[in-house]
Design the sequence.
């Protein structure tokens, strides 16, 4: 195993997430919200309020135009003077103190104030125009602004302008700024929370990816080792088989008396050598099959076959064994079984193995039933009749069940029994023999037919191996593991 | 540390680290209460409904150094963060720790918490390594918090432990505000002396090197003077002897 690499550094800093130093008013609070806030102040105090961002964009504007302003704007010179005043106010910097008063020719004033957040200026608040409470008469600048100004009219409208004391406006503005500050803080906090959330999810994801990459690497190495093991197994099996064939051959010749008559005891010994040799050969063949299946080099034919003769042959082969154990062996094949594509020799191997196993674990006077039926059970979740008219033809399969009344398989073992070399009872003193190869070969052969194998309980006792073979599926080369 | 010449700002980042429930947030809350509104911002806490820190807490302090001439003033921003102590927030701790200028390690004085303190300190060391930082190069102070609880390490034990370590040690009961300012000023002292030594910050601010802490105490509205605060330190090295 390689040493664990230190995780790389996160690619964002908390300063980025908090957008420290780059806080903008408009990022923290929506324009609609600002507008509403300003309008509520206008409703309360009757003085227009505007909010500008630090780069001069108008974010909120509340308050109707005063009648006097409207009147002045009907005249060309008045309009020009008004535009100059408003432009001046708009570009007015609140200065060091953060609060500047700017006069208008009408006698009204504007207050331009800094909006601060976290001890930084983030925008400007403009309150006005309003008349200072001390001013009672319109100033000469109002009457002189345009030759069309009628003194009486101007005076009447001047009287309708809102008036406020300077410190009242300061209080109003402070209150507005305090409310705004709270809104900004809430907005900032919400932003930071979601940004942090995203960042930590991203960070966790990054760590997971690193871990996944390490696991993948380890997995690839193990897969390679597994492949080497399979190759080794195949080679060794092959090399074992060659001398074994000679041992079996010569012991056969001896027992047939080709090298002279044997005494009864000698014949007995030679027969034992021969039997054990055959046993060893079948074990080696099993190993070879497994390694071929694992490496994907098992050759299989795919042609149209019928499953019933295959099953019948299995039953006739094993009937003597069943009779010897006093176990009933029953074949039950439905009438509707059609043709399927597959390799009859390999399928025979599958069912021979399953039935042999069933017989092995079934006590005397029990029974083993081999049955086959057609099925179009989708096996999916949900209603089985969903779109069945479309799906059924593609899902027709032959289900073969091998049911015994034996000792059964505990639930937790049901998936493991298909692992190569696995034995439910792995103690050295176990009651039943076997190499633990059979079922793993069976599973791989079934999968090579695009089929599935599962284990069910056989009430009240025993086990059912359920093999489903698709009728239409092509026979693939077994998956390369 | 960041220096923004255009904005005439210096920003310092201090991080309160430590095991879960050792009182990091409580330290910040108390610090918030013990200082005046003028120089500190709102305490931002991002916590779950059971009052455990989810991402971090942040308390910004803003100190103002008026320059010799108008327009030459500088702002020193001190941002104090806490990390979430719970083990599962490892990635957030690393994020918060990034770019830290100084660390206050808040340990729990209860004897039963000894292992959690040690584990968290090792976690700090590992996270710093991952960030290409190291404890050697970072100013660190240690606070033994929760002195008000029973079954805590005795003062003698802490004094003896402190004398063996390099880091200045403070005792606190943050929930009552005890030792909170002492720890903060101790951390500010070691962090400032390192940063000032490396970047000549006092010149930038237009102040004497030893004037920062008194200035901070004044602007934060403290009644206690700095020397008294720093004298609460047991063990460790608070001030480098001038060479």
Sequence:
């Amino acid at each position: 195993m390689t040493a664990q690499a230190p995780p790389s550094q996160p690619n964002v800093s908390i300063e980025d997430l908090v957008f420290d130093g780059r806080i903008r008013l408009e990022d923290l609070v929506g324009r609609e919200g600002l507008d509403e806030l300003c309008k509520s102040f206008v409703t309360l105090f009757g003085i227009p309020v505007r909010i500008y961002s630090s780069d001069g964009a108008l974010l909120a504007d509340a308050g109707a135009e005063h009648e006097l302003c409207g009147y002045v704007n009907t005249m060309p010179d008045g309009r020009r003077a008004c535009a100059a005043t408003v432009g001046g106010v708009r570009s007015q910097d609140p200065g060091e103190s953060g609060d500047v008063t700017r006069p208008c020719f009408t006698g009204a004033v504007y207050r331009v104030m800094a909006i601060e957040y976290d001890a930084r200026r983030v925008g400007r608040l403009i309150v006005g125009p309003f008349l200072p409470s001390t001013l009672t008469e319109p100033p000469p600048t109002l009457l002189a602004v345009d030759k069309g100004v009628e003194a009486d009219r101007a005076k009447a409208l001047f009287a309708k302008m809102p008036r406020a004391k300077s410190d009242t406006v300061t209080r109003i503005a402070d209150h507005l700024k305090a409310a705004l500050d709270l809104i900004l803080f809430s907005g900032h906090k919400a932003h930071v929370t979601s940004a942090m959330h995203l960042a930590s999810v991203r960070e966790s994801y990054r760590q997971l990816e690193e871990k996944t990459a390490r696991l993948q690497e380890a997995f690839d190495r193990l897969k390679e080792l597994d492949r080497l093991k399979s190759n080794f197994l195949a080679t060794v099996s092959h090399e074992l088989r060659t001398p074994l064939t000679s041992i079996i051959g010569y012991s056969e010749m001896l027992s047939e008396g080709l090298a002279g008559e044997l005494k009864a005891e000698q014949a007995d010994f030679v027969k034992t050598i021969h039997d054990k040799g055959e046993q060893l050969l079948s074990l080696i063949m099993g190993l070879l099959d497994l390694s071929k299946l694992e490496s994907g080099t098992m050759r299989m034919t795919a042609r149209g076959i019928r499953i019933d003769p295959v099953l019948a042959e299995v039953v006739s082969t094993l009937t003597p064994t069943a009779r010897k154990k006093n176990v009933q062996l029953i074949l039950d094949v439905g009438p509707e079984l059609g043709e399927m594509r597959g390799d009859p020799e390999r399928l025979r191997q599958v069912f021979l193995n399953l039935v042999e196993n069933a017989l092995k674990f079934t006590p005397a006077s029990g029974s083993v039933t081999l049955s086959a039926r057609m099925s179009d059970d989708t096996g999916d979740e949900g209603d089985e009749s969903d779109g069945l008219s479309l799906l059924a033809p593609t899902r027709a399969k032959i289900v073969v069940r091998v049911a015994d009344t034996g000792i059964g398989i505990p639930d937790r073992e049901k998936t493991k029994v298909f692992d190569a070399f696995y034995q439910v009872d792995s103690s050295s003193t176990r009651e039943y023999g076997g190499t633990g190869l059979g079922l793993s070969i069976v599973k791989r052969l079934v999968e090579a037919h695009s089929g599935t194998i599962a284990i069910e309980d056989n009430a009240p006792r025993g086990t059912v191996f359920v093999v489903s073979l698709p009728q239409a599926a092509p026979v693939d080369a077994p998956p390369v593991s | 540390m960041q220096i923004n010449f255009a904005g005439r700002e210096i920003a310092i980042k201090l991080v309160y680290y430590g095991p879960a429930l050792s009182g990091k947030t409580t330290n910040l809350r108390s610090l918030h209460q013990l200082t005046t509104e003028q120089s500190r911002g709102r305490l931002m806490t991002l916590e779950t409904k059971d009052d455990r820190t989810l991402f971090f807490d942040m308390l910004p302090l803003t100190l103002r150094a008026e320059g010799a001439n108008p327009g030459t003033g500088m702002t020193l921003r001190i941002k104090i963060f806490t990390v979430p102590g719970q083990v599962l927030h490892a990635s957030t701790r690393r994020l918060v720790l990034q770019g830290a200028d100084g660390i206050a390690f808040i340990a729990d004085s209860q004897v039963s918490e000894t292992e959690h303190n040690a584990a968290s300190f090792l976690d700090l060391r590992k996270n710093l390594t991952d960030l290409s930082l190291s404890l050697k190069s970072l100013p660190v102070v240690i606070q033994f918090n929760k002195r008000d609880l029973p079954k805590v390490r005795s003062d003698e034990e802490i004094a003896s432990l402190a004398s063996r370590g390099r880091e200045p040690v403070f005792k606190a009961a943050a929930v009552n505000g005890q030792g909170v300012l002492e720890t903060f000023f101790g951390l500010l002292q070691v962090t400032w002396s390192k940063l000032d030594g490396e970047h000549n910050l006092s010149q930038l601010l237009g102040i004497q090197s030893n004037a920062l802490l008194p200035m901070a105490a004044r602007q934060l509205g403290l009644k206690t003077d700095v020397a008294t605060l720093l004298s609460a330190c047991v063990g460790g090295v608070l001030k480098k002897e001038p060479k």
Observations:
- Helices of chain B lie at 24-34, 90-97, 114-130, 155-164, 180-199, 201-205, 212-219, 226-230.
- Chain B has a mean pLDDT of 89.
